[in-house]
Specification:
The structure is a single chain. The protein has helices at about 60, 75-90, 110-115, 125-135, 145-155, 175-185, 200-205, 220-230, 260-275, 280-305, 315-325, 360-365, 375-385, 385-390; strands at about 20, 35-40, 40-45, 50, 100, 120-125, 140, 160-165, 185-195, 215-220, 235-240, 245-255, 310-315, 335-340, 355, 370, 395, 400-405. With about 400 residues, it is an alpha/beta fold. Strands 7-6-5-8-9-12-11 form a seven-stranded mixed beta sheet. A six-stranded mixed beta sheet has the order 15-14-13-16-17-18. Helix 11 links the parallel strand 13 (about 310-315) and strand 14. It is globular. Bound molecules: S-adenosyl-L-homocysteine, thymidine-5'-phosphate (TMP) and zinc ion. Thymidine-5'-phosphate binds near residues 340, 343 and 376. Zinc ion binds next to loops.
Length: about 400
């Protein structure tokens, strides 16, 4: 197999087995035609990019009924408010600036600019979420970001001062074409700012559920520099973020146009100390995944034997990796509670656990809830105090498998 970025020969260091689409929540009549692929992570020692060997076609994942809406998490909406303010203070000093966002989803981030009458444009291929963004006053083009789109936008809107992205750069396999499109659409001294789950956090927490079809990459600063460096961009600043279980924000500019902050060198050093560039680290990660799986299966097996009821909390895309890799199905998890109407009444991908509205969970009194949206732990714990005071207990598997006391 060849690395997507540099072409070097690279082999997967493990397999999570046959996987369905992470967001492919389905109806019973669709079970027999469900799509599967092989989920195999690999690490390229030449360009330091962590990637999955095979990714389903983008159109199979991002379409007119894409079930993930950014606004479902209040903590993320607040985070986007801070993101918008940070960008505004640092990079929007020119007159009548233009802000673009790749993968703008339901407009949760761009709305902050729209409200301040800052010119903006979202580029979002999933038609349902793009429509939701428009209903919040966010100007949105329904399209995958490409050079053609960049050329058309540069003519219609002018060039962008900043191009933003959150949790989408790691979804796009051909980053060379993203860099070309950025080059067309970005002003000469403009910046590209994106944030994604961080490889260092994933390894530290054994949060292997970050690995699923949409996440074709899990980035480190080394990888981002080598990927975009090929197209004349360089990382000029970085910022560690607590979102999605540990993310990194990268600011890129055309080489030599802006000073490189000390934080970049510090992060590159830290990555070397964490051995993110060594194949051995990924062998260790594989063993940690296997241990995590053994422990979660044992815990759920024990609770089942004791006659306890366990439900899943939040039908996340990440949970698809956990359930399929650990072979956890409706025998272990009665149902998954989720607030997204598009997922309710459907079944989880691959293992076919029913997804039910949150109201059912609130009215029910299961003994245990497996916290699948562990990245929103603080927000959920705050909202679910009643579950806990009624005797309900949380099971988590990141950073380790345990029942919270
Ligand atoms: N930025 C939002 C949404 C992240 S989900 C947030 O952080 O909450 C990823 C989004 O990117 C989806 O809405 C998906 O439809 C969109 N997307 C996927 N591939 C894309 C591409 N090539 N160009 C633009 N958007 C893309
Ligand atoms: P994600 O992990 O793919 O981002 O999906 C998050 C899912 O979690 C989404 O379907 C909404 C759901 N959710 C809840 O059901 N309750 C909550 O309190 C939160 C924060 C999320
Ligand atoms: Zn490579």
């Amino acid at each position: 197999m060849n690395c997507r970025i540099c072409g070097s020969s690279t082999a997967p260091f493990m397999s999570f087995g046959r996987m369905p689409l992470a967001n492919g929540f389905l109806r019973e009549q669709e079970f027999s035609s469900e799509y599967f692929y092989e989920l195999q992570p690999m690490f390229c020692e030449t360009c330091h990019t962590f990637q999955i060997a095979e990714q389903p076609a983008p159109e199979a994942m991002f379409h007119g009924s894409y079930p993930f809406y950014s606004r479902t998490s209040c903590a993320m909406v607040e985070h986007f408010g801070r993101y918008a303010q940070w960008v505004g203070e640092r990079y929007l000093d020119g007159r009548d600036p233009l802000v673009a966002e790749i993968g703008s989803n339901d407009g949760a981030l761009l709305e902050y600019f729209a409200k301040r009458s800052v010119r903006h444009i979202g580029i979002e291929p999933s038609a349902n979420v793009a429509e939701e963004a428009r209903s919040h006053g966010v100007k949105t083009l329904t399209a995958f970001f490409s050079s053609d789109v960049a050329e058309a936008l540069a003519i219609e809107e002018g060039k962008a001062d900043v191009i933003l992205a959150a949790n989408v750069m790691c979804h796009i396999p051909d980053l060379g074409s993203v860099a070309s499109a950025v080059d067309i659409f970005l002003k000469p001294e403009g910046v590209l700012v994106f944030e994604d789950p961080y490889l260092g956090d994933m390894l530290a927490k054994t949060s292997y559920d970050q690995i699923y079809d949409e996440h074709v990459y899990i980035f480190s600063c080394h990888a981002v520099n080598s990927i975009f460096g090929r197209s004349g961009l360089e990382v000029i600043d970085v910022q560690a973020l607590p979102t999605h279980g540990g993310s990194m924000r990268y600011v890129l500019a055309r080489c030599g146009t802006r000073p490189v902050e000390a934080a970049v060198k510090e992060l590159m050093e830290a990555e070397k100390n964490l051995e993110l560039h060594l194949a051995d680290r990924y062998d260790r990660f594989r063993e940690q995944c296997e241990t995590s799986r053994t422990q979660l299966r044992a815990l759920l097996g024990r609770l089942k034997e004791e006659g306890d009821r366990v439900v899943g909390y939040a039908a996340t895309s990440k949970s698809t990796t956990v359930f399929n890799y650990c072979e956890i199905g409706p025998d272990e998890i009665e149902y998954i509670s989720d607030t997204t109407p598009l997922k309710q009444g459907r079944f989880s991908p691959g293992m076919h656990i029913p997804v039910r509205p949150h109201e059912d969970f609130a009215a029910d009194c299961p003994g245990y809830a497996l916290l699948l949206a562990w990245n929103h732990r603080d927000e959920i714990m705050k909202n679910e105090q009643e579950f806990y005071s009624n005797g309900g207990r949380w099971i988590v598997f990141v950073p380790q498998v345990e029942i919270l006391s």
